[in-house]
Amino acid sequence: MSDKDTGLAPRLKSKPKVEKPKLYKVILLNDDYTPREFVVMVLKAVFRLSADVSQRVMMTAHRMGSCVIVVCTRDVAETKAKEANDLAKQAGFPLMLATEPEE
Ligand code: TYC
Questions:
Q1: Do the Cβ atoms of 25 and 77 come closer than 8 Å?
Q2: Cα–Cα distance for residue pair 87/3, rounded to 1 Å
């Protein structure tokens, strides 16, 4: 008896009902003027990183030119980057955080 006859054959690969959200990186960019302590303060306040992790992330950006802080949904990434960029602007520092889609 073939599948056609019984009508009981399982449907082939149905489309997943919930799409995986695309993920975005929040990237810390180095500059020559923002004080290290200010960068660490922003990482602790906006991203809730520990003092130790904030220091490491800041030093990685300082040495390498940039450092990924977190990977999250687009909405969260853009909100956090804006919060941090606004703090820097208010304080008069050129610190910049950018977002970019993850490959
Ligand atoms: N390079 C800055 C300095 O020497 C410190 C710094 C680190 C600035 C990381 C931005 O993303 C940054 N004062």
A1: yes
A2: 64
pLDDT digits (tens, 9 = 90+) for 60-69: 999 999 999 9
Q: Please, are residues 58 and 28 in contact by the beta-carbon 8 Å criterion?
A: yes
pTM: 0.85
CB of 46 sitting under 6 A from ligand 1? no
Number of domain units in the chain: 1
Domain that holds residue 49: 23-101
- Assess if residue 80 is contained within a domain: yes
Does residue 10 register a pLDDT over 80?
no
Would you say the CB of residue 82 lies under 6 angstroms from ligand 1? Answer: no
Residue 81 lies in a domain: yes
61 lines ligand 1 (CB under 6 A): yes
51 found inside a domain: yes
Q: Is residue 38 part of a domain?
A: yes
| Ligand 1 atom nearest to 67, measured from its CA | 11
Nearest CA residue ID for atom 12, ligand 1: 30
